[in-house]
Amino acid sequence: MTNLPQVRSYPTNDKLSLGLAEYVLNAQAAAFSRHPKFRIAVSGGSLPSILASPALIDNPSVQWSKWEIFFADERAVPLDHPDSNYGLLKSVLLDKIPQKSSMPKVFPIDELLLDDTQELADAYEQTLIQSFAAKDSVKLPIFDLILLGCGPDGHTCSLFPGHELLREDIAWVAPIEDSPKPPPRRITLTLPVVTHAVRVVFVAAGAGKKEILKTIFEKPEEGLPCSLVNMEAGDKVVWFTDDAAIQGVTGVRKGSL
Ligand SMILES: O=C1O[C@H](COP(=O)(O)O)[C@@H](O)[C@H](O)[C@H]1O
Predict the structure, then answer these.
(1) Which CATH class name applies to 6-254?
(2) Complex ipTM value
(3) Where does ligand 1 bind, in terms of residues with CB under 6 Å?
(4) Among the atoms of ligand 1, which is closest to the Cα of residue 186?
(5) Any idea where the domains of the chain sit in the sequence?
(6) Which of 134, 223, 229, 252 could make an SS bond with 7 (beta carbons 3.0 to 4.6 A apart)?
(7) The dihedral of CA 156, 32, 196, 176: what is its sign?
């Protein structure tokens, strides 16, 4: 089968970061062949630090001023709170971009709406609508690249196993008040938005991710959120892992490094 996701596995985190940086640069070039912007969505958790390697941050081929960075999910906390995905990305990546004159356009949540996650999600959906054209003219936004993490329970974005949000097929952005991983109040891109992107990347590193990767790849019928993305987006998906996370996992299509 050719529509399986691809897995690229590396012996060390440094090599993984390097491979990821190369991939992101290719995605940037492909985006510029379609339009003058590079529109991406970024997750929190372990992903930002792996993404923010010198191979990306100091790479002269990165055209930061043409990047538009959105969040695949965000916690309903102030932007300077330790749980904020924006705050994390800012500290590990945005603050390290060398030429401040050439910064990406970043789209954080509206801090004034933190008390009401539905309003927070609706406002973030409006932010997407403004960038990707009106919702009545495009059915779904098409990100050039979505960068996802994979939680130890198989969640991605703030889409958790067995949660009713996995069935959301109208909203682009949805609130969640009962995230099993703290903090409980969040917003998230919905599954159709994630799988509609031109490219979808998962990053999962460390032996701690091995058991869940086995379930994701070997038992897709369990319907874990990461498996649902794999099944729906197929060969648009590339997994970047280290060897410790993927060793012994069957049912994967190994990609060339
Ligand atoms: O809560 C979250 O967790 C996931 C996975 O995080 P990781 O540390 O296991 O990589 C992350 O992708 C998501 O953005 C975040 O809000």
Answers:
(1) alpha beta
(2) 0.99
(3) 43-47, 72-73, 85, 148-149, 151, 156, 158, 181
(4) 16
(5) 6-254
(6) 252
(7) positive
